[in-house]
User: Fold this.
Amino acid sequence: MEIVKVKNYEEMSERACDLIIEIVNKLDNPVLGLATGSTPEGMYQQMIDSYKRNEVSFTKTTTFNLDEYVGLVGNDPNSYRFYMNDKLFKHIDLLADRAYLPNGDTDDLQKECRDYETLMYKAEYIDVQVLGLGLNGHIGFNEPGTAFDSRTHIVDLDETTRKANARFFDSLDDVPKKAITMGIETIMESKKILLLVAGEKKAEAVYRLINGETSEEFPASILQKHENVTLIADEEALSKL
Ligand code: F6R
Assistant:
């Protein structure tokens, strides 16, 4: 794992954006794996700025997001589809029919999981997958205990994750209890992984990621086995190493 130590959140976002833009400009049909949450917001803003400066075009790019809540329609302000539209998609020239997220608003969730896998397979999998790090080591919505050989599946969200995400909702009761997420094996098939971490509250999780054993009890630990991971982390996140 390559560790890039940066000063703060802004520098993490800039470095991450540079890496993404380089890949998008290099490949004929780039496939990006994207995440939501607080961590990648700065990177998305940098990508928009870069697009507006004509440094990049996304017309040949396909994107797959890691996850989506079950039971929220796409225009619900708390859905990840809404987040992606708001923070990135509507500001750049990515084609709408190439911007994929799992659909959590369907009667047949198992079929949705299978269809999502098929779409990624047809796109020949992800060139670079952006990941944030959960306090309990989750990646995507793969909570502790998720099998390392899992593919896209439905999960019951951990209470700690629901509480951490409650800041975006009116109350904890409004936070969905289920989500669809790419599985660990799906994530590990990405050709490159870009893990972004900032802030002191993630320091313990980063320590465990780097120094802990590889265990399903700490899902992110599997990344030690991936041959092309770049961790961009700020000083605070690396403070326990
Ligand atoms: C988001 C996702 C989650 C987040 C993680 C960190 O699509 O899959 O695994 O990356 O919960 O969230 P933040 O960035 O808000 O600390």
Notes: Residues 9-26 form the longest helix (18 residues). The longest strand covers residues 192-197.
